[in-house]
Amino acid sequence: MKHRILTLTFFTIFAIVAMAQSEATDSIKTQELNEVIVEAQMQRTDAKKSTYIPTSRQKNASQSGADLLDQMAIPQLKVSLNGNIETNSGKEVAVFIDYIPATENDLKAMRISDVKRVEYYEYPSDPRLQGHQFVVNYIMTKYEYGGYVKGYNHTNLLHFSEQLLGNVRLQYKDMTYDLMGYGWGHNSSHYGSELTETYRLPQDDGSIKVFDRHSNTTASKENRQQYFAAFKATYNTEKIQASTQINGSINRKPHSDRSGEVTYSPADFPSSEYSSTLSNLSKFISYDGYYFFALPRNNAITFNPSYVFSHTEQNSTYNENGFAPILNGAIDNTNQMNADLKFSHDFGKFGNVLGFIRGSYEYNRTQYTGSAVSFDRAKSSRVGLGASYDVSVGNFYISTGFGWDWDKLKFGDMTDNPSSPWADLSLQYGFKDAHSLSTTFHYSSWAPSPTFKSGNIIQSTPLMRYTGNPNLVPSKSYDIDFRYTWLPNNNYSLSAFAWAWIVGNRYAYDYEASSTGVLRTIKQPMGSYAQGQYGVSGSLKFLNRSLVFSGQVAQILNHNGAPYDVNHSYINWYARLRYYLKDWNFTLTYISDSASADGCMNGIWHKAKSDWYITFGWSNSDWNIRADLIDFSRWNWRSATQVMRSKYYDTYQEIYDGQSHALIQLSATYTFGFGKKVKRDDEPRVSGAASSGILQ
To answer: Who contacts 530 (Cβ-Cβ below 8 Å, separation ≥6)?
Structure first.
């Protein structure tokens, strides 16, 4: 009886609900709903970092990691045609792949399809990023075992050069092995310049002799080659990252020959012809280590040792009719060692502290022959201690650091022991995953290169000699940045920036005159030096991001005090339009003429021509083929001008090379992978570069 009552009750309730639903349906009008598309967020920013996820189109169109950044149009970054990566204000960016340091050649060798996302940091707290100010970190797909093989070729026609790169990766469990080989060759007969030098030479009778020396290149030939090989072994677990790499490289310039005409105005000297030759050979072998250990209780240790031995040979001749030949030679052997040890502790919500000790040592032994004969020995070492602390408070990220560097500089019998502090302060604010605002301040000093400390006097032309200064001490550097980033959605991005850089206790080239010519020296302290820039960059994406417009406009300001006493300003800009069509991609880029100071040691103001180029690319899962047509409206070899004025000596130079001539560049990559996904993807990097103590 009880079951019958329950059954009757159930059907009664069911009937009531069904009648109610029927009446509700009759009372509601039928309406067709629009399609709702849920799209993943491909870019976001906060107080600590900005994160970007590349699309399959962008990865397929990219031949290297630098290409990928360019395709993604990240507003805080600027990528040049040769693959150089900077902030949008021109600051150096450290590049990492899965938190392992990487270089330009590593980005060419990486497997682009494995990139999951790209992270951009300013003053990151992660100890694996080694305290760099600006960082790009590629996060790669994980594997279990296997690897890949990649080949890369880039050929430059009309101004011939060719580079080949191959990378083989093998992975098994926690170990990864990489073997990389690289070769580059270049031949050209289009290097040279038209140089006008104005001399104001004081005479014994108190007068000033003023005249111009004009030299013009009429023929040239240059040949260069570079080869290197790199082997890297990486051990990677959740608690330990250990990487060891050995590099070897040979850089040759067997020929850099020029000939031309020399005239004087007024014609106090007879017109003549000149010829010059330059050859150099540089070889180095290096070791790079990276070791990270995650310790209990939120502690970690990072150790980065490196060593480079380089051997450099350089020989030059200069012959001008009516003057004695000038012969110069130098052989240099250099040892460089660096080591950084960092300890970090994470306090959780109370922040993170990083303490470190770093050391460096460089020993140059240089034998000079020719116009100067001597054997120079230069030693420089630095020991630094420092600590940084960072903490997040709501939407604020605060990072501050302080340290002290002790230098020991020994050149010949002279020894100097300067020391100086450094300091960092970074304030960053992010909100709503779309806005971030930051300001940073940095103070530091740097020791003069041994190339500037030689007291030898080198004759370069009949009227010009140059020398160094053994008494140089470190200069001071102050810079401050302001940045704002806006990422409202996947289709728009904008970044505004401003920065200033001031050099204190500056050493700079100065020109001393006698009745017979000019001696270029290096003096300290010289007049103040300051440089600044402000601008805006951004991107717009249309047609489901198949059409992308990106660009930047900025103004640079420069003050160069004594001995040059000059002020400059210039507006630089570029615009790029890119379109994706299935496996094809097309790009049109225009870069305005630009101007910049050629460093803080001299008074040269460098002006470069505008550039434009069209890119056609095709790719599938294995191949990527590209053609760049560059500056096809310009068929002369002039690319830039350089102007410098001082009390006794001025220069105006037009430079000839292939930078602004019509060019065709062809490049291709072929990549194939095998095995299953492994844990990590760390690319070998070509570390170090052959350096020397030869006076320049």
So the answer is: 500, 501, 502, 503, 558, 559
Q: What is the band of 685 on the pLDDT scale with cuts at 50, 70, 90?
A: very low
- Do 400 and 422 touch, CB atoms closer than 8 A? no
Amino acid, single-letter form, for residue 562: A
Predicted model pTM: 0.85
Q: Pairing mode, if any, of strands 517-523 and 529-542?
A: unpaired
Contacts of 16 (CB under 8 A, 6+ apart): none
Q: What are phi and psi of 13, to 5 degrees?
A: -65, -40
Query: Amino acid letter at 8?
Result: L
pLDDT in tens, 18-38: 444 444 344 444 444 444 444
The amino acid present at 547, given as its one-letter code, is: L
Q: Give the C-alpha separation, 563 to 513, whole Å.
A: 13
Question: What CA–CA distance (Å, rounded) separates 288 from 267?
Answer: 57
SS3 of 306, please?
strand
Query: What does the DSSP 8-state code read for residue 524?
Result: S
How far is 477 from 441, CA to CA, in rounded Å? 11
Nearest CA to 156 among 180, 179, 190?
A: 190
Give 414's pLDDT tier (boundaries 50, 70, 90): confident
Please state whether the peptide bond connecting residue 124 to the residue before it is cis, i.e. omega within 30 degrees of 0.
no
> What is the spatial distance between Cα 592 and Cα 608, in angstroms, rounded to a whole number?
9
Asked whether the bond before 563 is cis by omega within 30 degrees of 0, the reply is: yes
Q: Which residue in the block uniquely carries the two structure tokens 């005239």?
A: 263
How far the first Cα of the chain sits from its last, in Å, is 110
Residue 636: exposure state from Cβ atoms within 10 A (0-12, 13-18, ≥19) = exposed
Q: Assess whether the previous peptide bond of 488 is cis (omega < 30° from 0).
A: no
| Structure-block tokens of residue 500 | 């200033």
The helix/strand/coil state of 26 is helix
3-state secondary structure of 182: strand
Across 257-284, average pLDDT: 92
Do 76 and 495 touch, CB atoms closer than 8 A? yes
φ/ψ of 610, rounded to 5, equals -70, 160
Whole-Å CA distances, 471 to 364, 512, 524, 606, 696: 17, 18, 9, 29, 17
Question: Rounded to 5 degrees, what are φ and ψ at 67?
Answer: -55, -45
Cβ atoms of 215 and 198 within 8 Å: the answer is no
The neighbour count for residue 218, using CB atoms within 10 Å, is 11
Query: Which residues, listed in sequence order, are joined to residue 225 by a DSSP beta bridge?
Result: 185, 252
Q: What is the pLDDT of residues 45-60, one digit of tens each?
A: 888 889 999 999 999 9
Q: Pick the most confident of 9-23, 27-41, 259-273.
A: 259-273
Stated as kind and residue range, the H or E segment containing 613 is strand 611-619
CB 137 within 8 A of CB 116: no
| Chain center to CA of 508 | 24
Among residues 293, 152, 147, the alpha carbon closest in space to that of 683 is found at 147
CB 561 within 8 A of CB 573: no
Reference 131, options 439, 403, 392; nearest CA is 403
Question: Which pLDDT score is estimated for 693?
Answer: 66
SS3 258: strand
Q: CA 25 to CA 161: how far, in whole Å?
A: 75
Residues 561-593 have pLDDT tens digits of 999 999 999 999 999 999 999 999 999 999 999
* Structural domains of the chain in order of their starting residue, each with its CATH number: 147-678 (2.40.170.20)
